[in-house]
Amino acid sequence: MNILNKTGLIILMLISAQIGWARSMPAPPWHSSNKIQVQTKLSQTKIVQHSANTVFVDMTFTPPAISSLTGHQRATDIIIVLDRSGSMSEAKKMPYAKAAIWDVLGRLRENDRFALVSFADNAIVQSPLVNVSASTRNYLNNVVRSIRASGGTNMGDGLNAAIRLLDKNANERAKKILLLSDGQANQGITNPEQLSQIVARATQYGAVLSTIGMGLGFNENLMARLADYGMGHYSYLEDLTGLGTILTRDLHETRNIYANSSSLEINLGDGVKLIDAGGYPISYMGTSAVKIATGQMLSNTQKHFVMTFNVPTANIGSVSLGSMRLNYQIQGQKMQTQIRPEALFLAVVAPEFKIQAQQSIDKEIYQNSWKDNNLGRMKKKLSKWMREGKKYQAKQAIKQYRKEINQASRESNLPLASSKMEGQLQEMESQVDDAFAGSMLDQQVKRNRAAKSMQYDSIKTQRK
Fold first, then answer.
1. What angle do CA 30, 304, 260 make, to 5 degrees?
2. What is the percent of the chain where pLDDT is above 70?
3. What is the CATH architecture of 34-66+260-353?
4. What class does CATH assign to 76-255?
5. Which residues of the chain carry a pLDDT beneath 50?
6. For site-directed labelling of 252, which of 340, 396, 440, 454 has its Cα 20 to 30 A away?
């Protein structure tokens, strides 16, 4: 064999070896085989002409498991944004917050980085992002220890300071911002929409922002909204002994993030209206185009919620809810999963085919949509009326839900209004009555507590 032939043989062997090695390597997280699976189920495939026009779509997102090469060994950046306003000196809030932060520091590894921003009248970067090692851990613990509570609540300044820390961040690192606050944004930027836009900027860096409301003085609507726009989740703690557990959960989730952000885009069909999407924020991009921020996706963890549509029932024939696609980002890579168009069609049938329409109902989807999703939507309304001190409207919200679920039972010929459900409604009515009993100060405290717990329950009820 001459030298040329030997060289060719060696090259072929090297190429074969490279091919074999490539086949044995795990696919990168943005590989097409690793796309998030989307499952949609209609509450029914037929609806009666001129009848109730509400249709539910059960949505389930299933991200694949990620290997240790792409997930669990990823370096993590944790930025804690801590409220140090004067109210944090009450009810041992600051000591609880510090203890929880120290617990997180003890769980970080040497390739992880930690930063701490505090805010009151202004924001202070207590520590930039530094690697948590044996030499820096004591320094960071002392930084946390040095914080003192005083002043107002300039939340916007704190959030902006945290986002500036992301500027020089490597894209491949998992990034989490945790906002801890016990008060109202009363200095600097206070408009909820503007604060939401600040938070949305964090997602452009691949970061996820979650919020924790402490005590009873914070604005629960704002904290929940910021978590939605930050693609994270909102937690509410009146009893702060559980704060360490919440922060530890957030750290664990950050190590298992598959997609740091996701959104569902829908081009609605003719005459179709989107009423609700599991309580997630809905942005309208035109008369028929909507975008729903559906948050982070965790490895091998399903995300489930129900979408509520109103469909036109004036004419007999087929109706398309529209076209849908899920957009998401994995380590800076933009991905997309298209929902099958045929899964979003239903038929409007003549009144004489009412039985066939009832038979087309998916019993489990329909019942769960009423007992979970719609109950959660009602709790959100109830929270609003309790917050505003309007007892009559609060009682009417419960009464209206009871009326609607009984009507839906008759139209679907399905048992929706169970004794368990009635017990829950009666308990809520008692809670409303109790919140408006006693001294004015007692009423104010009880209504505030009820508004927060009902709003928090509404989110947990709608999203699984």
1. 35
2. 91
3. Sandwich (2.60)
4. alpha beta
5. 1-27, 30, 68-72
6. 454
